[in-house]
Amino acid sequence: MPKYFKRGVKREHHFLKGLEKPLEEIAKIPGVKKVIPGRIYSSDSRGFEIKVSRETYSGLKLVAKSNGSVQDVFLVVDKKDRERVRREIERLMEEWRKV
Q1: Which of 26, 29, 41, 95 lies at a C-alpha separation of 20 to 30 Å from 85?
Q2: Contact assessment for residue 80 and residue 50, using Cβ atoms and an 8 Å cutoff
């Protein structure tokens, strides 16, 4: 695993508050090869949410929202596993909402 990866998640830059543990859980989903946090920008969002926004060439793009900020997160996933990974992320998000 490259130098900045720990538990399947790239840690070279910052995370939104409360995002680190959910990304580690996403990294454990079979078929997810890498989790790469991207750009953080401000918004008027409240609460916590992670959703799949679209497919990319190498996998999936997620949007994570947490109390006034939004972060792009990229997953490296084989094409054959993408739909299963998408469903598993939706299931995990339902669990996180209950907590």
Answers
A1: 41
A2: no
- Strands of the sheet containing 9-10, edge to edge, are 5-6, 9-10, 32-42, 69-77, 59-66, 48-55
Distance, in Å, from the CA atom of 20 to the CA atom of 56, rounded to the nearest integer, reads 22
CA distance 66 to 17: 7
User: Beta 59-66 vs 48-55: how paired, if at all?
Assistant: antiparallel
* Segment 43-61, tens digit of pLDDT: 887 888 899 999 999 999 9
Look up residue 89 and give its two tokens.
């992320």
Calculate helix-pair angle for 20-27, 82-98, nearest 10 degrees: 140
